[in-house]
């Protein structure tokens, strides 16, 4: 019961950088009764200070990069980032636009990439559950650092 | 010695029952929305996770206020179980809520300020009903002590039926459930973020969750007093209150604090006063 603590209640905060809303609707679809993300303990929380996983949709541009970094910095450790969709993973079809920096990994360290345009709710859920496992590893590693 | 054992039992069992209530709440809500829902122990998993997180503090005193909130909520529950003075219990409980409101105010975030202001208005609405409940009990038993109910030949609910309905109404406010979840809510993050608790993270939020579990047990304990003579019926009343609050939570939309204050200060308090007046004029008593 006391092992795997972080993986059992991943609370997500959803950041829309520059998305066309396609991925956002799929993220919200995860919370509907059909896919029911709450059975994994997932809560879509409004404030980054209580979140464990940041779900980023859309490519990062010059306007949104500071907002994305700011929200990432407000999240308490341990934290993970899931890039949902082709745009958040690589920049997608916008990758060579003059105003676009690229995927979310250009601004913040991304742990899980969920490809697709737009990805299915099942694969988004899979990405969030994988990120929850990564959170647990991060917690164990940070404890080791403290113990040393 | 007996008192010490009782206190220890309360300190251990109350959060367990509160945790199960919180888990049942989420499970029932999920089933009512035809979802599978999280496991019953999900609030406990959340708690374990939160104490493993980093604690980000905006204002040094915010954690102190949450600690005061915790201490006074636990004290009020312990006093309730020990059969102490109900008037004092409510005042101790009020201090807990005041600490919560001030804790929301000190963080400086506009969302927690809005949450605190709305919680103040909610307090304005529910405190008179709690006081009328105590007045009714005093008029029927001639004492503010909960232990005086043991010798009563009739339950409180027999002569305080309208106050019971008023308390059911108030429980929705106290559990911070829809339609009165305007001070803090899991579902209102578009307009409120997280209300009072916006700036709390990690272990501080875990303490808030723990206090909620004590508070759930305390509030259901207040409803239990309506039929203290028979433990089974008392617990059934408490369970009925809990399920009633959850069903109402699921079938209603969020209302404004103005609506709450209007309705409580006219209909709810008005009817409760009529109940008290009937007891006064008929000189009813249960001891």
Q: Could you characterize the architecture of this molecule?
A:
The complex is a heterodimer of chains A (148) and B (287). With 148 residues, chain A is of the alpha/beta class. Helices cover 35% and strands 18% of the residues of chain A. Chain A has helices at residues 22-29, 64-74, 85-90, 121-147, and strands at residues 11-16, 43-44, 53-57, 60-61, 80-84, 100-102, 112-114. A 5-stranded parallel sheet of chain A has the order 2-1-3-5-7, sandwiched between helices. In chain A, strands 4-6 form a two-stranded antiparallel sheet. Chain A is globular, with a radius of gyration of 15 Å. The model of chain A has no long low-confidence stretch (mean pLDDT 88). In chain B, helix 1 crosses helix 8 (203-224), helix 3 runs antiparallel to helix 4 (86-106) and helix 5 (110-141) packs antiparallel against helix 7 (161-174). With 287 residues, chain B is mostly helical. Chain B is globular, with a radius of gyration of 19 Å. Chain B starts with a helix and ends in a 5-residue tail after the last helix. Chain B has one domain. In chain B, 70% of the residues lie in helices and 0% in strands. The chains are: A alpha/beta (148), B mainly alpha (287). At the A-B interface, strand 2 of A face helix 2 of B.
Short synopsis of the structure:
The complex is a heterodimer of chains A (148) and B (287). By secondary structure, chain A is an alpha/beta fold. Chain A has helices at residues 22-29, 64-74, 85-90, 121-147; strands at 11-16, 43-44, 53-57, 60-61, 80-84, 100-102, 112-114.
Entry keywords:
A: alpha/beta; 5-stranded parallel beta sheet; two-stranded antiparallel sheet; 7 strands; B: 287 residues; mainly alpha; 10 helices
What gap, in angstroms, lies between the N and C termini of chain B?
Answer: 29 Å
- Taking all Cα atoms into account, the compactness measure Rg of chain B is 19 Å
In percent terms, what proportion of residues of chain A is strand? Answer: 15-25%
Please give the largest β-sheet of chain A.
5 strands, parallel
Mean pLDDT of chain A: 88
Largest two-chain interface: A-B, 25 and 34 residues
Mass-distribution shape of chain B: globular
How helical, in percent, are the residues of chain A? 25-40%
The unreliable regions of chain A are none
Number of strands of chain B: 0
Catalogue the unreliable spans of chain B. Answer: none
Radius of gyration of chain A: 15 Å
Total count of domains of chain B: 1
How many helix segments of chain B?
A: 10
**Pattern of helices and strands of chain A:** EHEEEHEHEEH
User: Which structural category do the helix and sheet elements of chain B fall into?
Assistant: mainly alpha
Spatial strand order of the main sheet of chain A: 2-1-3-5-7
Helicity level of chain B, as a percent range? over 70%
Shape by Cα distribution of chain A: globular
How would you state the average pLDDT of chain B, rounded? 90
Class inferred from helices and paired strands of chain A: alpha/beta
């Amino acid at each position: 019961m006391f092992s795997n603590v972080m993986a059992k209640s991943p609370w997500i905060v959803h950041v829309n950088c520059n998305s066309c809303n396609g991925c956002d609707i799929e993220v919200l679809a995860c919370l509907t009764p059909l896919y029911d993300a709450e059975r994994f303990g997932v809560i879509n929380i409004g404030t980054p200070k209580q979140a464990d996983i940041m779900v980023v949709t859309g490519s990062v541009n010059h306007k949104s990069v500071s907002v994305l970094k700011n929200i990432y910095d407000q999240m308490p450790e341990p934290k993970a980032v899931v890039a949902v969709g082709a745009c958040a993973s690589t920049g997608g079809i916008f990758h060579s636009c003059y105003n676009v920096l690229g995927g979310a990994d250009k601004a913040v360290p991304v742990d899980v990439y969920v490809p697709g345009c737009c990805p299915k709710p099942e694969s988004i859920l899979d990405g969030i559950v994988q990120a929850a496992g990564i959170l647990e590893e991060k917690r164990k590693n940070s404890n080791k650092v403290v113990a040393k | 010695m007996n008192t010490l054992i009782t206190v220890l039992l309360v300190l251990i069992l109350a959060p367990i029952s509160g945790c199960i209530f919180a888990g049942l709440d989420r499970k029932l809500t999920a089933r009512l929305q035809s979802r599978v829902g999280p496991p019953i122990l999900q609030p406990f998993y959340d708690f374990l996770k939160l104490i493993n997180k980093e604690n980000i503090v905006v204002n040094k005193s915010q954690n102190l206020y949450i600690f005061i909130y915790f201490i006074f909520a636990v004290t009020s529950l312990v006093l309730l179980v020990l059969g102490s003075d109900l008037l004092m219990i409510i005042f101790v409980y009020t201090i807990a809520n005041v600490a919560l409101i001030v804790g929301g105010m000190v963080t400086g975030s506009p969302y927690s300020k809005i949450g605190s202001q709305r919680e103040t208005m909610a307090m304005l609405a529910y405190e008179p009903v709690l006081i009328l409940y105590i007045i009714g009990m005093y008029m029927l038993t001639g004492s503010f002590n909960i232990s005086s109910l043991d010798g009563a030949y009739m339950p409180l609910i027999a002569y305080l039926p309208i106050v019971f309905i008023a308390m059911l109404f108030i429980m929705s406010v106290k559990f911070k459930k829809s339609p009165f979840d305007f001070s803090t809510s899991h579902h209102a993050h578009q307009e409120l973020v997280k209300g009072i608790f916006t700036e709390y993270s990690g272990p501080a939020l875990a303490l808030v969750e723990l206090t909620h579990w004590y508070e759930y047990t305390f509030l259901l304990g207040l409803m239990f007093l309506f039929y203290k003579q028979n433990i089974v019926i008392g617990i059934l009343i408490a369970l009925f209150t809990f399920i009633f609050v959850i069903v109402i939570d699921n079938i209603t939309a969020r209302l404004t604090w103005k609506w709450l204050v209007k309705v409580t200060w006219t209909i709810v308090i008005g009817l409760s006063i009529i109940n008290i007046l009937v007891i006064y004029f008929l000189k009813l008593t249960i001891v």
